[in-house]
Design goal:
With 153 residues, the chain is of the alpha+beta class. The protein has a single domain, classed as 2-Layer Sandwich (Alpha-D-Glucose-1,6-Bisphosphate, Chain A, domain 4), CATH 3.30.530.20. The protein has three helices and eight strands; from the N terminus they run E-E-H-H-E-E-E-E-E-E-H. The longest helix is centred in the last third of the chain and has 22 residues.
């Protein structure tokens, strides 16, 4: 994981093809297997990106770019005004590149600073591990962060 100014970057190799991984980024039922309790996703430019993270905190934004099996970009932030990262105020870009019989996933979250960047870095590290498990056909189990204040302290 790298932190450069306002950017978090995480790169991971997943033993699944890009088409499989892409489904976990765009299909609401698959998405909540690794992040959140409920998701409303409309993966087209301008479409809604909204995830109930833990029954209390809701992240929302819009899709900016969707390239099947290669790239998903959406805005990100927390609803409700209590957080320092307002809904739609930052950008998450996830790229998928076929690598052998797997996928190289790169996540870049930009527009964060200080404690917000650090909290999100920890959250993304946790959730990318869960995404890797489900994309590879495993079950990550109950999410310990689903009952915690995960991001907007």
């Amino acid at each position: 994981m790298r932190h450069v100014d306002d950017v978090i970057e995480i790169e991971v190799r997943i033993a699944a093809d890009p088409k499989t991984v892409f489904g976990f980024l765009t299909d609401p039922a698959k998405f909540v297997r690794w992040l959140g309790l409920q998701a409303s996703l409309h993966p087209i430019p301008g479409g809604i990106f909204r995830v109930d993270a833990n029954g209390r905190d809701v992240v929302s934004g819009t899709y900016v770019e969707v390239v099947p099996y290669r790239k998903v970009v959406f805005t990100w932030g927390w609803e409700g005004g209590g957080g320092r990262v307002p809904a739609g105020s930052t950008t998450v870009e996830i790229t998928l590149r076929a690598e052998g019989d797997g996928t190289l996933l790169t996540l870049r979250h930009s527009g964060l600073s200080g404690v917000d960047r650090d909290k999100h870095a920890g959250g993304w590290s946790h959730y990318i591990k869960r995404l890797t498990i489900v994309a590879q056909g495993g079950e990550p189990g109950a999410d310990p962060l689903a009952s915690a204040d995960i991001a907007h302290g």
